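Q: Hi! Curious about what GNAT family N-acetyltransferase looks like structurally. Here's the sequence.
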Amino acid sequence: MLIPLYTPRHFRRLGTWYISGWRIKAYGISAHAPEKEQFLQPELIIEARSFVEANLGRIEGAPHYSVGFVILHHGSSAKTLLTQWWVNECVCMQYAAQSNYSGQPKFSFTKSDLMACAYELVAIDFERRAWISTVMSGKPIEDYLESWLPDGLNLRGISRCRANVFMTACRVCYPSILQKPFSPAWNPLDEGMIPSFRAITPDDTADLQDLWRDAWTATYGPSLGQNALSAMLEDIERKGTASMLPGSGERGHCMASDHQILGSAIVAERGAIAYLWGMYVHPSQQRKGLGSRLLRGVAATIETAEKVEIRVLVSSPMAIGFYRKHGFTETSGETIEILDSVKASALVMSANIESLKAAVQGNPNSFIATSNKPA
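A: Let's find out. The predicted structure is below.
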């Protein structure tokens, strides 16, 4: 029997899924990218998350740490979902599910003794090493949650680490293994790196899309529902950054390190008002002061406007609190159109530009908000 030769497949973070107190790291693998426009179908991701959520009872049986990871793999002949979680200090539990290969995705538990394929074992091996190097080395669970297998094309199916100290992603191993070797959701402050505020460039397109996917999944899935989230993810796959940067005189800014964009903000000055939207910090980097630094940088770029105005979803109380702490007040309420098929109730919040500049100077560690461009 001839066994097909190993061929590279694309790996990508799908973000952390926050489900009923659980924090689940989600990976995607595709045998077809980049031949297809989409890495994974948004409806496949939505169905996978819904399946995990619907079967939480299956993973609640034994004492656990409310953390785990999933691998969603669109292979050459199967669509597989592996759900794994940590129990009893060092034990990794798993169940496997598969979806019909064509038509609307629908997962069900496998009837065989399936564990994982050679491609899926790459991510499993990385997660094993991450658990050992963080939680089983006396570090907090948050360090494990911020350790990610880098996005990119896995050329040899290797995820070993030869470094003496296992960092978020080993810089010794991965440059020779991945085309895009280092773009995990890590904490740059742990490495003495200070993210910088700068303008968005065309080279940031892929990283911005990754940031927005993760932020939208964490924020809009719970608040707007899965149908709205699916529509938003489809929109960004189809339009790219034009989904948020329509090219109508706006300026895009970001908080970035050498390796990854950690936050974004978009502003457009129109007369006396500077409209702010697209303000996000990656879910894994929130509560670290990046939101305040991002807002401070935006305020410094405003040239002629006298006040800043933003629409904040009513369903985002943390966002509302963030802006209040930084000098914003509610002026009115309205229904905003996120997409043609997605509408939501929002508060219009505004701040005098001078008051904003004064407020952001003294708030280095606040929550980051979620917001939308003006209708």
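A: A fun detail: The two ends are 60 Å apart (CA to CA).
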